[in-house]
Write a structure and sequence with these properties.
The complex is a heterodimer of chains A (298) and B (231). Chain A has 298 residues and is of the alpha/beta class. Chain A contains ten helices and ten strands. By secondary structure, chain B is an all-alpha fold. Chain B is built from nine helices and no strands. In chain B, helix 2 runs antiparallel to helix 3. The radius of gyration of chain B is 21 Å and the shape is elongated. In chain B, 38% of the residues are buried. Classes of the chains: A alpha/beta (298), B mainly alpha (231). The interface between A and B is medium-sized, with 30 and 24 residues.
């Protein structure tokens, strides 16, 4: 019995799930940079399928909050649970969890030393090969063990259903499919520096999607773009939202937040000052600072 | 002067002095290029560890070792290092003097390259590391596949500088009985009792060598910048 649980957890590589938790859950999250308090004891839940927009003035901590969600920024105290796994726990393999959380940056951050296709396939291929290697290594030890085991008690080998070549081809195929969907299939072999900002950002989104994430985090995805390119990126994000992707978006595009979000969080001074459905936040704000903020940006 | 030139060429060609010069040229190039390659490997590792130094205790401990290494090899002259390796460290084991020079020059240049590479790694935008981490790659994988390749590209001009410096530094390899360019021409000078012509020629050979290297480095640099050029 005990052994069975052990092998199961090794195969699936999943952390034990705690019951009754939302997809993303933040508990008493506090972040300080030196003496500067950026996030002040935030607790929040994000359910599967939600599209949460975070708005607020500069320096309100919204980007830091987003970056704490996948522990790119280590919280000073508090906990972040993603599908039940505490990301702040050093025993949890953060790389494993991050595979299922896509992130898109303001500055795109495409890998400059790789062409577009390699940008997209790098992580899926690397992760696939790593898993394959793990299974092979495990099988090797089982085989060695089997030599010493009695006839009836020999352990079964884990099935290997794929090969390195297949992993690479599948990743390439998937990347080309995604590129085709955003109409950039002809750019597969060029380097990021030859692309426009809008194209780069759409490729950055596709790069995150190639890992089949459960949730997408957007950190001001359109703030570094020329006005005429904002539309194409927002259209892609909206398309994703319509496909049912769970997402958290830090944005200054109020119109977009209003249209796409199912819930809007207004942050100021390291706290979530007010939250609710977009109609309420934009139509009938209660918090004074939110009213002030909206009067300036709308 | 004409007479001296005559003697020099006569010794060089008729008496077989060119053999030493060719061996010397070969050894000088081997020491410089192999030294730089070893240096880049050591330097990249030391630099990566130093950059990672603040992350955890193990990395910190290794980074202290890295600091000691760069301090030691940058703080003493290469001649002294060669002599210590020759007379102290490799005293018990017979080792080819060329290999010995390659090792010492490799270790020496590793100390310089480590600092060059560290600067190169720090010059790569932090966003590249963050992007690598967010798609689920480990720190080490991101470093090896994304940051260090870009860092190397950034430091090619400086590494070229290092190669040129290394090439000229090899002129002291003769101290431990390696036949390098300097030793070859010194041998000619000793045999012909004339120091003017051989050493002027020695300078000329180094000069040509360095000019050739400069051209090659330019070429490599341009090739590596390919990903940054717009179509």
């Amino acid at each position: 019995m005990n052994e069975e649980i052990k092998t199961q957890s090794l195969v699936s590589q999943e952390e034990p799930q705690e019951q009754g938790r939302a997809m993303l859950e933040v508990e008493h999250l506090t972040k300080k940079f030196g003496d500067l308090l950026v996030l002040d004891d935030i607790s929040e839940k994000i359910e599967q399928g939600e599209k949460v927009a975070i708005i607020g003035p500069s320096g309100s901590g919204k980007s830091t909050f987003l970056r704490c969600l996948n522990v790119l920024e280590d919280p000073t105290s508090g906990a972040v649970y993603f599908e039940g796994a505490n990301l702040c726990d050093l025993k949890v393999d953060i790389n494993l969890q991050r595979r299922r959380m896509g992130m898109v940056f303001q500055q795109f951050n495409l890998f400059n030393n790789m062409n577009v296709l390699k940008n997209i396939t790098l992580a899926p291929v690397h992760v696939g090969l790593q898993d394959l290697k793990k299974v092979k290594r495990k099988n090797f030890f089982t085989k060695v063990g089997n030599v010493f085991r009695a006839k009836g008690k020999k352990k079964e080998l884990l099935p290997i259903t794929t090969s390195a070549k297949e992993i690479k081809e599948a990743a390439k195929e998937n990347a080309m499919r995604l590129l085709g969907r955003i109409g950039l299939a002809d750019k597969a072999n060029v380097y990021p520096s030859t692309l426009s900002g809008g194209q780069r950002q759409r490729i950055a989104i596709v790069r995150a999607l190639a890992m089949n994430p459960k949730v997408m985090l957007f950190d001001e995805p359109t703030s570094a773009l020329d006005p005429e390119m904002v539309g194409e990126v927002l259209a892609l994000i909206k398309e994703l939202a319509d496909d049912g992707m769970t997402m958290v978006i830090v944005t200054h595009e109020m119109g977009f937040a209003r249209e796409v979000a199912t819930r809007v969080l207004f942050m100021d001074g390291g706290k979530i000052q007010e939250q609710g459905p977009p109609e309420q936040i934009f139509g009938n704000p209660k918090n004074d600072r939110l009213k002030d903020f909206l009067s300036k940006v709308l | 002067m004409g007479h001296k030139l005559e003697v020099f060429f006569k010794y060089l060609i008729t008496y077989g002095g060119y053999k030493n010069v060719i061996t010397g040229l070969r050894n000088t190039l081997i020491i410089a290029v192999a030294g730089l390659i070893i240096g880049i490997i050591i330097g990249a590792i030391v630099a990566a560890v130093k950059v990672a130094g603040s992350r955890n205790k193990v990395a910190k401990a290794i980074s202290v070792v890295g600091d000691a290494y760069t301090g030691l090899f940058r703080g003493t002259p290469i001649i002294v290092q060669l002599l210590i390796f020759h007379y102290v460290i490799f005293r018990a084991i017979q080792i080819d003097s060329l290999l010995e020079a390659v090792i010492v020059f490799g270790l020496n240049s590793g100390a310089y390259v480590a600092e060059i590479m560290r600067g190169g790694i720090l010059s790569v935008d932090i966003g590249q590391m963050e992007a690598g981490r967010t798609v689920g790659l480990s720190y080490t994988t991101t470093m090896l596949k994304i940051v260090i390749p870009q860092a190397i590209k950034n430091v090619v001009p400086t590494l070229g500088n290092e190669l040129i410096a290394l090439t000229k530094d090899t002129s002291v390899a003769g101290y431990v009985a390696t036949m390098d360019l300097n030793a070859a021409f010194t041998a000619i000078a000793g045999a012909t009792y004339d120091f003017i012509v051989p050493y002027l020629f020695l300078a000329l050979v180094y000069l040509v060598l360095v000019i050739l290297m400069t051209v090659i480095i330019r070429f490599v640099e341009r090739r590596m910048r390919k990903s940054e050029r717009r179509n």
